[in-house]
Design brief:
With 344 residues, the protein is α+β, with helices and mostly antiparallel strands. It folds into 2 domains: 10-192 and 314-335, MHC class I-like antigen recognition-like (Murine Class I Major Histocompatibility Complex, H2-DB, Chain A, domain 1, 2-Layer Sandwich), CATH 3.30.500.10; 200-312, Immunoglobulins (Immunoglobulin-like). It is 28% helix and 31% strand. The chain has 8 helices and 18 strands. The strands form 3 sheets. Strands 4-3-2-1-5-6-7-8 form an 8-stranded antiparallel beta sheet. Strands 9, 10, 13, 14, 15 and 18 form a 6-stranded mixed beta sheet that branches. A hairpin with a 2-residue loop joins strand 11 and strand 12.
Length: 344
Amino acid sequence: MRSVVLLLLGAQLAYAGTHSLKYFYTAVSRDIDFPEFTAVGLVDDGQFMYFDSNIKKAVPKTEWIRQNVGADYWDSETQSDIGSHQAFKNNIQIAMERFNQSKGVHTVQMMYGCEWDDQTGATNGFYQEGYDGEDFLFMDLKEKRWISPVQQGFPTAHKWNNDRADLEGRKHYFSTECIEWLKKYLEYGKSSLQKTVSPQVSLLQKDPSSPVTCHATGFYPSGVTISWMKNGQEHHEDVDLGELLPNEDGTFQKSSTIRVTPDEWKKNEFSCVVEHQGKTVTETEDKIRTNNETSVPIAIIVGAVAAVILLVVIGVVGFMVYQKKKGFKPVSASDDGSNSSART
């Protein structure tokens, strides 16, 4: 699915630029030790609400949302997510039939939401669905039409394209209501969203012949750039950039791994450059930490594992299944009068 961006207000904005409101819905078929349905809401990539089919209740994940909305808000979220759970259960069965599948673990995901540039005023909206980690359906908001890249999604796209009233309603929602909610949430959370925390950067290597990982963690906001330099020049060959992951304290982490032979390390000068909020941190190969050293940053490695576990616990399984779908975005169920529709 194509990348999109996503939500705040005047001089009190968390930080200048593009802001986002995202909702990720994930439904999992039976025979797996995981909730059948999860819903996660994020503002500027920070989680603020959560629902799953086991607890059957939408709950706040930040103090700023807890302090600014009442019981009616959470009752509405809960009822909407319960309805989405039923629709998604039906969608999995229909998708399995279309793909001629009768068993196995399968996932249906939806991401929808909006973005707003506080400097230019530009807005954007998006709605995307996936099945088993692959693109299934998305909405072209500008053209007001549904598009499916796979034959199994054609019946859904055709049916929804014939519902012009729904298309108009969704366009209004994404361009108006969603943006209003985004600004409202950003205002609620401005005290915490305004914070800036610089990353801690480490170079990690299992042994001298293993790839080297440049690991940045503990930073906020989420926008960070990690690049490699070779003899003072940008180097992109044999580099794998990892996904952005949340830490339990609300900060983020990200890594980039480079595969270079020991001989190349000796003959050249490599360094990792991490840029965040106008500040740059550079680590050179003499700072590499390996398993042979007593100073290995075990806490950092454990933190990385904990973050991956946290993703599953909070239900952002879509981040992991959609490893190549960065930018996949959704909006609050209670804010949207028309939730995901069951396919027929």
